[in-house]
Amino acid sequence: MYKDKTIAVVIPCYNEETQIEQVIHTMPDYVDKIVIVDDCSEDNTAKLVQNCSQNDSRIELIKHNQNRGCGGALATGYIWVKDNNYDIAVRMDGDGQMDPSDLISLLEPVVTGETDYSKGNRLYTGEAFKMIPKARYFGNSILTLLTKIASGYWHVADSQSGYTAMNSEVLITLDWKLMYTRYGQPNHLLIMLNVLNFRVRDVPVKPIYGIGEKSGIKVKKVIFTLSWLLLKNFLWRMKEKYFIRDFHPLIFFYFIGFVFFVLFIFLFADMVFGWVKLGHIEYISALGMMFSFMFLLLFVLFLCLLLLLLFVCVMFLLLRVLLIISCV
Question: Does the predicted model carry a pTM greater than 0.90?
């Protein structure tokens, strides 16, 4: 226990035979339960965990008979923790990239009631740029910006960090079966937390790389998958939080901004078509395009968001960065 609160650590695992024993052996003594969810690993992960459980009674091994993704494994673990009435649920991965010495920093604001959900921020330290692989660093930074927009948590950074702690209220309130199951689960969870008005806090943690961990992430595929996920759930958050649960005039600004965006695209296409076919630009089309763009900026920049345009620009920038990195 930690300050009279029972602590359960959920560890989703998929092919982590090289690191899982070290993760278990370095788990702090104040952790009451270690819930390890083997997501149908193809190596000896489950066997190694079973061997460790003979010497550590805190271990609870749950096996999936088919791969459900990291989010699916987490959902299984969180549901088990909720059903067994633990006060705090922590997520640590089985790849050894989360320093157990940072756990108290994550627990403290949750245990004291200062926040409902705390998450590690590896970008806080000045050493992050040197320690984190450059492609991941730049990709994480871009996804952090997009997640700020989609989730509404402007004070939260390092959106891809999975080192988290949450109280029992979060555990009970969220429907874990609705959480996104693949890469992008931390982003989706932040959006769900915002809709339900939970408090979220960043906690500085140490980034750990180069210890033998393996990443199965395909960057180019993730970019477009996550972009769609964030856009879709941004719209869902607008509907749920500002229209259904508690009406807010904010929704009008987004709607009007979107209307002017569509109008701008139509008038721009009409102007280009006239230029190509007639050899000159129609003044009416040009003025209409200019005014629609001005109103678009008026409504959308008023909210500090150019979401639709920003997604396109950021994706182009990220692809350029990845291209430069791959050529070096």
Answer: no
